[in-house]
Amino acid sequence: MSDDVQARIADAVNSADVLLFMKGTPLFPQCGFSSRAVAILDHLGVEYATVDVLQDQGIRQGIKEFSDWPTIPQLYVKGEFIGGSDIMMEMYEAGELADLLDQKGIARAA
User: Fold this and answer.
1) In whole angstroms, what separates CA 78 from the centre of its chain?
2) 108 within domain boundaries
3) What is the reported pLDDT for 110?
4) Which of 29, 49, 51, 91 could make a disulfide contact with 16, Cβ separation 3.0–4.6 Å?
């Protein structure tokens, strides 16, 4: 994996408080897992940025190495890797994702 791709991923992760690497866009997610991840973030009322891995094969492969996580989507909060859609769903249902966002000082719409 090229250092350039890893650097671009690191820049993206550090450029947004909440960042979702996903397949597609929030309006047109290209897989069910990405769709579920977007729905969770939307329901929590948090502002987030996304990276469409389908637009960049280097990012699509590189993010898996960056996080040491084999699947997409991947959620980052304040530069910290949180997990994929299954972990997001578990944390959301347990109230842990909302708590994490609050602890990290991420503003959420009421």
Assistant:
1) 11
2) no
3) 63
4) 49
